[in-house]
Amino acid sequence: MSSSPSSFVSSPIQSNMALFHPFLSHSASLHHLPPTPRQPQPLKLLLSLSSPPHPLRPLIPTRRQLSTIKCGAVADIKTPAPPLDEHQEEEEDHKVLVGPTSEAERRGERVVADYDWTEEWYPLYLTQDIPDDAPLGLTVFDKQLVLYRDGSGELQCYQDRCPHRLAKLSEGQLIDGRLECLYHGWQFDAQGKCVKIPQLPADAKIPKSACLKTYEVRDSQGVAWVWMSQKTPPNPSKIPWFENFARPGFQDTSTTHELPYDHSILLENLMDPAHVPISHDRTDWSAKREDAQPLRFEVTERSDRGFAGWWGKTSDPSAKSFLRFEAPCSLQNNREIVDKDGEKHYFTGLFLCRPTGQGKSMLIVRFGGTKRSPLAKLFPIWYFHQNAGKVFEQDMGFLSSQNEVLMKEKVPTKELYLNLKSSDTWVAEYRRWMDKVGHGMPYHFGHSTISLPKEPAVVEHAPAGLVAGVSASLPAKGGIGSMHAPNLANRYFRHVVHCKICRNVVKAFQAWQKALTAIAVASAALAILVSGRQWKALLLVSAAISSAGVYACSAAIALNTTNFIRTHRRL
Fold first, then answer.
1. Engineering a disulfide at 444: which of 218, 301, 324, 438 sits with its beta carbon 3.0 to 4.6 angstroms away?
2. What is the Cα–Cα distance from 496 to 476, expressed in whole angstroms?
3. Residue 198 and residue 184 in contact, taking contact as beta carbons nearer than 8 Å
4. Do residues 469 and 133 touch, judged by C-beta distance below 8 A?
């Protein structure tokens, strides 16, 4: 996969500390290299919007046509401008709002591409976080899957359904490399064939139909990918390949988050650099509210598979980043940094957004580069993970409400959004791409078209098998305590249960917290009982230090498990 990044001079500290912002920070002195553009693929079919061949909602009148109420922004000016007629208002709007990008769109025609959502590879999980001793329950749109490692350590993926009585296999366990359904004990081998039924008579054969629907799964660059089609053979050439991650010396910090809104809204958010200075002000060393400004965008590629192009700040024309979106759900932002010695370093922000059902998505975030600042090395990995959780929590209220409005209004985004040329170009491009391929998805919200979900949303009050080991050792399904409640607005459930590093960190801090509490109590009790002044002082100091340690452990646990709340929202 071609990166086509820009090349510039910047501080490596700034680049590394911008982790988990969708867009890396800018620097003042930049020198960009020309991109390596892809050849755009031909569009498959040109149709008139007046007679769509697919069961899509037809185009409806524009917002201006639907409404006779005129409104305008109020500016703080001393001399009011003369009123404009309707034609002049439209001309002024066209200067700032994203308009049609092709002659076909201007004529009211729609380009439709040949697309089937199942004939794609979807990112399931970071391979480093897949448990060795338990099955993992995951979804792609409304398809429920179970992922696990067999006895030889190979990844296997099946439909998450036992053929006996439809129990979830992700609620089961692994026995000698075989997947066992914990409802009645049926066991399945690596090929999905049933090899044991405890209730079957000794002289009876296992029915041939007692087998599982299998899905092809591959490990590529540290991510497990699944091919969703049951009709078309897997196409290995469609597995995304990220060039920078294969470069010598490239190191990344990767994390997984489950989020309570649609994957298309998540992708919109991640390709929106304009919101970063406002929503994430001072979250790290790169986002500052006073840096909010008009942005420059240049679309260099459009195809049935996605789009790509440059973007940057108007205040620094030499600073440019290269963004690429590729079907079905991969987004990357690349840069090449040239240091003071003339050495080139590569940096990438990669976002893999898996649709997990209506109003739900799972995101794999991967930030890395061929050079890392010494200062960034001083921070533990879990610190960057919790900071990523903070970033997503800052946007969560906005995006959840956006999801709700789209479902209620049931109209294309062009009737609801005011996309500015200076901030929302990528968002408009993405929704127009949805217009081309949405007919091949279970549902979609395009710029000019919409198809609503045909299947009702499934709400699980006891989510199955996220990490069976954690589910067994902690009340991860809401049995005790709010930290472990099955709620996607809860950071523990959204991230920690998916991350080996953060689970182990939380467990370690909890163990230290208990031990230090015991030491503090014992020291305080002994200080009361002893009569020597030196011993009493020593025990009191020990109790004080232990109490401080208890507080530090409690703060670290809260940092990993407690949601961010904006100051003005705190009660």
1. 438
2. 10
3. yes
4. yes
Q: How far apart are CA 415 and CA 448, in angstroms?
A: 8
Token code pair at residue 45: 């079919």
Query: Beta strands of 276-343 (E only): which ranges?
Result: 295-303, 306-313, 321-326, 330-338
Query: What beta strand segments (E) does 327-436 contain?
Result: 330-338, 344-355, 361-369
Instruction: Of 3-17, 38-52, 69-83, 366-380, give the range with the top mean pLDDT.
Output: 366-380
> Under a CB-based contact definition with an 8 Å cutoff, are residues 321 and 310 in contact?
yes
The fraction of the chain above a pLDDT of 90, given in percent, is 55
What is this structure's pTM? 0.81
Round to the nearest angstrom and report the end-to-end CA distance of the chain.
48
Buried b (16+ CB within 10 A) or exposed e, 343-379: eebbbbbbbbbbbbbbbbbbbbbbbbbbbbeeebeee
Beta bridge partners of residue 178, listed in sequence order? 175
Q: Is 534 exposed, middle or buried (0-12, 13-18, 19+ CB in 10 A)?
A: exposed
- 174 by DSSP, 3-state: which? strand
Helices (H), 487-532: 491-494, 500-529
For residue 62 the two structure tokens come to 């524009």
Q: Please give the pLDDT value at position 85.
A: 66
Query: What SS3 state is found at 366?
Result: strand
Tokens of 347: 């940096």
Q: Name the strand (E) or helix (H) holding 124.
A: strand 121-126
What are 155's strand-pairing partners? 149
Helix (H, G, I), strand (E, B) or coil at 300: strand
The pLDDT mean for the chain works out to 81
Q: At a CB cut-off of 8 Å and minimum separation 6, what does 502 contact?
A: 382, 385, 386, 495, 496, 560
| φ/ψ (deg, to 5) at 478 | 90, 15
Dihedral (CA of 270, 360, 16, 326) sign: negative
DSSP bridge partners of 348: 334, 368
For 564-567, the CB contacts below 8 A with 24+ separation are 564/389, 564/390, 564/393, 564/394, 566/394
Q: Among 191, 189, 248, 198, which Cα is nearest to 215's?
A: 191
**Nearest to 136, CA basis, from 241, 231, 258:** 258
Secondary element (H or E) of residue 187: strand 187-188
Spatial neighbors of 311 by CB under 8 A, at least 6 apart, are 273, 295, 296, 297, 298, 320, 321, 323, 425, 426
Q: Name which of 245, 393, 455, 399 is nearest 330 in CA terms.
A: 245
| 27 class by beta-carbon count within 10 Å (0-12 exposed, 13-18 middle, 19+ buried) | middle
